[in-house]
Amino acid sequence: MRSRTLIRTIAIAIAASVAGLAGGTVAVASAHDNGNRSSHAWPQRLIDRSPDLVQPKALTVDHSIGERRAAQEVRLAQQLYTFWNTGQQKYLDAAVSPRFKDNTLPTGRPQGPAGPAFASKNFRAAVPDLTCELSDVLITGDKITARLVFRGHFTGTFDGVQGKGQSVDFNAIDIQHVGTDRIIEDWHIEDNQTLMSQLGVDN
């Protein structure tokens, strides 16, 4: 719990620094602010409440980019991580540009939009009940930063190893660069050491 609080504190500080450099202000909202009409009301109303989309647990927004652009970026984040939460291609297509580029492309993964689709399919072969929690979203300029928690059970197969129902629970951090209407590139890092250990296939 302390580590998660520390990560969120650092994330908010980064967002505040970026917004401060841009001469903007930052608004922060959490899942507990839904009925609050105070300063949290603005970031909360940026969230798309459609029941099919994942809901961010916490949201930090740079006011300087304007409400329309901020809402667009929040929704793109919700669509992208709904893809990771469900594996449904339609959410990936809605969030990612056809010219999308993965700047931290893992070995063996195809470049472009085919990459996330490939990764999701293979991951779900190992962890069919995979979920993706959108723990933190930071909107600063044309960048979306997200802290994610992936959970599930290793009941499928991975690298020739048959799962025995082991629990999976690990973190990832993404930075998404938004173009005119969709995400055009990203950088990401996953806690693969924890994942491999949980799968029981670490070296």
- Strand fraction equals 25-35%
* Radius of gyration from the alpha-carbon trace, in angstroms: 17 Å
Mean pLDDT: 86
Question: Helix amount, in percent?
Answer: 25-40%
CA-based shape: globular
Cross-sheet strand order for the largest sheet: 1-2-4-5-8-9-3
* SS content category: alpha+beta
Commentary on this structure:
With 203 residues, the protein is an alpha+beta fold. It has helices spanning 2-21, 41-45, 67-86, 89-95, 114-126, 192-199; strands at 26-30, 58-62, 96-102, 131-140, 143-154, 157-158, 161-162, 166-178, 183-190. The strands form two sheets. The chain has a seven-stranded mixed β-sheet, sandwiched between helices. A two-stranded antiparallel ribbon has the order 6-7. The longest helix is centred in the N-terminal third of the chain and has 20 residues, at 2-21. The protein is globular, with a radius of gyration of 17 Å. Residues 15-24 and 34-39 have low confidence and may be disordered.
Summarize the structure.
Helices cover 36% and strands 32% of the residues. The protein is built from 6 helices and 9 strands.
